[in-house]
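in:
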């Protein structure tokens, strides 16, 4: 057996990725979405799950994939109330959730590294950018 699979953290990550794949497969029968946007959404969900285990690589992946989502502002995934959610706004919400999770559950590491103020500034800018982009026709 591979030594990598003996690590409990990696086993949990692989299990979550498999469950996300199965859930995404089942949901694809009920939701009409193009293959390309479905693939991008699938990649975003994978990066989101990986970010809880390896936050550095998750946020780095979000930063690298962000330019790919610029063209998707007209394509909405879903809407609630008067807001429509596209891939870019969904990714912004995912990064906000990851940042808050890291700040709450790993606050001892953040305090030791003396970047607490930078994390708070990052979260504040993220929240403000979501509030500024509340345009019903373009998405969040």
């Amino acid at each position: 057996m591979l030594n990598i699979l003996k690590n409990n953290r990696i086993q949990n990550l692989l299990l979550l990725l498999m469950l996300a794949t199965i859930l995404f497969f089942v949901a694809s029968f009920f939701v009409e979405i193009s293959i390309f946007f479905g693939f991008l959404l699938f990649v975003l969900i994978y990066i989101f799950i990986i970010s809880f285990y390896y936050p550095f690589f998750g946020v780095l992946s979000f930063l690298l994939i962000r330019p790919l989502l610029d063209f998707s502002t007209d394509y909405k995934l879903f809407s609630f109330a008067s807001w429509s959610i596209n891939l870019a706004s969904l990714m912004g919400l995912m990064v906000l959730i990851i940042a808050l999770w890291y700040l709450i559950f790993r606050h001892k590491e953040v305090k030791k590294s003396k970047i607490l103020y930078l994390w708070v500034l990052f979260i504040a800018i993220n929240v403000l950018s979501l509030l500024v982009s509340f345009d019903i026709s373009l998405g969040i």
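note: The mean pLDDT is 77.
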